[in-house]
Design brief:
With about 725 residues, the chain is of the alpha/beta class. It has helices spanning about 20-25, 30-55, 80-100, 105-110, 115, 125-130, 135-140, 165-185, 190-220, 225-265, 275-280, 285-305, 310-410, 440-460, 470-475, 500, 505-525, 540-555, 570-575, 585-590, 595, 620-625, 625-640, 655-660, 675-690, 710-720; strands at about 55-65, 145-150, 155-160, 415-420, 480-485, 530-535, 560-565, 600, 605-610, 640-645, 665-670, 695-700. It is built from 26 helices and 12 strands.
């Protein structure tokens, strides 16, 4: 048997992960729907109560604003005139809105007898009774003045608890507004116009002065001629700058060449240029010497023919040729020295000439720059005067526009407004409360929000293990796999305990094959010889998991022994009818009965079975801790490739914990939604204390409607397998 290793999983997180919004919505769909309906019903009741006991009616008076006439319409620029007209109407409406809400206007309206008393009954109006104090503040709240600028209209709307009173009050306010508007024409409008006219006249004088200054400056300085001359001079300056740059480059090159020639001349290693060599060869003395040497060569050839090479005449000619050759060499050396001197003088002359030309050109360029700057000065002055005239003209235009608006405003405002639709009439429909806002929508939102919040809190505080995330993230244990609920797998046929064999195309069978692959991967070359499969709590499905795992291993060409180690409620006899009465407890007491306790499976030749035996559960703990049991495990491991034990629940009896310490590995089975995380953590700590090797957890009976994770896995599996996915049951 392999030496068990100590479980070393880290501590669980103190705070669980936040639940997924849609998972909570799916799990508590009916609860959230009921809360939403309840919220809607409560909101409807509040709306009905407000409609019966606190109704609100609104009546309105609308005014149309006439467009400005006169100076704006007479302007030649019709588009600008229309824009100015719209802007003036907007300003007029804003001014009227403020005027209606003035304290003195509202007070005059409330002082009217038609406002204070009901003309039919003679009793104080309901509005006055409902607002015994601070009436002006409540009137500002119930009276709404709305502008419709694009239509040139504004509207006065009064809200009251009676439709007739709402119409009467708004009419009183409208008449008060109209009377006040007629009597409150501003006294100082004339003075303001005079003052504004004076400012406009002063600005016109300023603009005239600026125009005259600009005209005089341009006339006296011929600005148009200066602009043309400036353009010409600037072009010439650019050409001169370009030519000066080229000359400066030539001067630098001549200076470098001159310095190089003088340096080589000083060190006596200056080579004579080809043109100077040609000059040397053209000198008269060189020509005479070369001709003399040529004549001597010709005489020598003739003398050789007539007198022979050893004659005295030939020797005399050779002596003369030698003397002439030396003279030629000396003359050439003398001329070469003179040529080198000429080369130096010419380089210096060329440099001095180009330098003088460049200096002269630079002086001309500087004169041209000065002339251009002088012209720039006049142009800058002209631009400044033109900018000053532009600014002063813009100021004048703004002042003239203000003057036009002030002139229009000086006309009595009451002439520019007229009733739109006549007197207000009692409304036929209630303005508040409205069913569509805010009661019903707010009720729906609050009902949904509160019910979902409670559902979310329930989900957040639920510590039961339901999803793989609860095992891997919150408890931080390895997950070997999860097995779907049998009701969610339409491909399942035959007994659930042998589904990996009897229903190989089902998702449940595929889940057990994945668990088998996980175990093989964990073995990593050192296979587990003995495994304990036990539920955390009763009813977890350990027998089903152990049976299917044994079948899966047997189908994988391994000799497997499936042992029922639950002395309290043996589960294998229900699934396998041929299990003998002699079992594990009997073999521990009498090892000689081992062969009679093991029977082969009727369907799988590689699978053998052993029951729990006849001994009762009272002595189960002593049996698991005995030396005979340890020897039995070693014997079984030597006979089979794998021994799988179906144990009792880990949280109820101690014999399963003792058994866990004596096998190579432990598989803990958790039924989804029935075991708390704390229970799993406690069992984990107990296994750690006995140095048991917990291979991982299998999540059993995972339902598709509990979380989208499982449902997505099933859908993907059946799509890949080419079969329709099962429909999740409706709970």
């Amino acid at each position: 048997m392999n030496q068990p290793t100590t479980l070393s999983a880290p501590r669980p997180q103190a705070v669980p992960d936040a639940p997924d919004f849609f998972a909570v919505l799916r799990r508590y769909a009916w609860y959230v729907a009921g809360g939403t309906v309840l919220g809607t019903i409560v909101a409807s009741g509040i709306w009905l109560f407000m409609r019966v006991y606190y109704p609100r009616w609104s009546a309105s008076v609308a005014y149309q604003v006439l467009s400005p006439q006169g100076s704006l319409a007479a302007r030649p620029d019709q588009a600008q005139a229309m824009t100015d007209s719209q802007e003036e109407v907007s300003q007029f409406i804003q001014r009227q809105l403020k005027y209606v809400m003035k304290d003195d206007v509202l007070q005059k309206a409330m002082d009217q007898d038609a406002f204070r008393n009901d003309p039919v009954t003679g009793q104080p109006s309901r509005w006055m009774v409902e607002h015994p104090t601070d009436r002006k503040r409540y009137l500002r709240k119930d009276l709404v003045v709305e502008p419709f600028v694009n239509a040139g209209v504004f509207q006065l709307t009064m809200t009251a608890s009676d439709p007739n009173e709402a119409a009467r009050l708004v009419n009183v306010i409208a008449h008060t507004y109209e009377d006040s508007l007629r009597s409150d024409n501003s006294v100082n409008q004339s003075e303001q116009l005079q003052q504004l006219n004076k400012i406009v006249q002063q600005q016109q004088d300023t603009v005239k002065t600026a125009q005259d200054a600009l005209s005089e400056f341009r006339k006296s300085n011929d600005i148009s001629g200066i602009i043309n001359l400036h353009s010409v001079e600037l072009s010439l300056l650019q050409v001169m700058n370009q030519k000066l740059t080229e000359n400066e480059a030539i001067v630098a090159a001549l200076k470098s060449s001159m310095d190089n020639i003088l340096s080589h001349l000083k060190s006596n290693d200056l080579e004579v240029s080809s043109d100077m060599r040609q000059w040397i060869e053209q000198q008269p003395q060189m020509i005479n010497l070369e001709q003399t040497k040529l004549a001597l060569d010709q005489d020598r050839q003739v003398t050789l023919v007539t007198a022979g090479s050893q004659s005295k005449e030939v020797r005399m000619i050779d002596e003369r040729i030698k003397v002439v050759t030396q003279q030629i060499a000396e003359t050439r050396r003398m001329l070469e020295n003179e040529a080198r001197q000429r080369m130096a003088e010419r380089a210096q002359t060329d440099y001095n000439s180009m330098l003088a030309q460049t200096v002269y050109m630079r002086q001309q360029r500087d004169d041209k720059e000065k002339k251009v700057k002088d012209l720039d000065h006049f142009l800058v002055q002209d631009a400044q005067k033109a900018e000053e005239l532009k600014n002063q003209t813009e100021v004048l235009n703004d002042l003239e526009q203000k003057l036009r608006f002030a002139t229009l405003q000086s006309n009595t405002d009451d002439l520019r407004i007229r009733r739109f639709g006549g007197e207000a009439i009692p409304p036929e429909q209630m303005s508040a409360p409205l069913w569509y806002w805010p009661y019903i929508p707010v009720g729906v939102v609050l009902g949904f929000g509160i019910s979902f919040g409670i559902a979310y809190l329930l989900e957040f505080t639920n510590t039961r293990v339901r999803t793989p995330a609860d095992i891997t993230r919150n408890i931080q244990l390895p997950l070997l796999g999860f097995v779907p609920d049998e009701e969610d797998d339409s491909a399942l046929t035959g007994p659930l305990a042998t589904s990996v064999r009897t229903a190989p195309t089902s998702m449940i069978a595929e889940s057990f094959r994945q668990i088998r692959s996980q175990l093989i991967a964990q073995a990593n070359g050192s296979p587990f010889r003995s495994l304990l499969v036990a539920s955390i709590t009763p009813g977890g499905g350990a027998t089903t998991i152990a049976s299917n795992l044994a079948n899966a291993m047997a189908l994988n060409k391994k000799r497997v022994l499936l042992v029922d180690a639950n002395f309290y409620r043996p589960g294998l006899p229900t699934e396998y009818r041929n299990i003998p009465a002699v079992g594990l407890s009997d073999v521990i007491s009498d090892p000689s009965r081992l062969d009679s306790a093991i029977v082969p499976s009727t369907d799988l030749p590689n699978l053998h079975l052993m029951g729990a035996g006849a001994r009762q559960s009272a002595a189960a703990g002593e049996l698991m801790e005995s030396k005979a049991f340890q020897e039995l495990i070693e014997t079984l491991e030597s006979r089979y490739d794998m021994v799988i034990l179906d144990g009792a629940p880990l949280n109820l009896v101690s014999d399963s914990i003792s058994l866990a310490a004596r096998v190579d590995g432990v598989i803990a089975v958790v039924r989804a939604g029935e075991v708390s995380r704390g229970t799993v953590v406690r069992i984990r700590e107990q296994l750690r204390q006995v140095r048991a090797h917990l291979l991982g957890v299998v999540l059993n009976a995972a339902q598709t409607h509990n979380a989208g994770y499982f449902k997505e896995n099933y859908r993907t599996f059946y799509e890949y397998a080419g079969r329709p996915a099962p429909v999740a049951p409706i709970n």
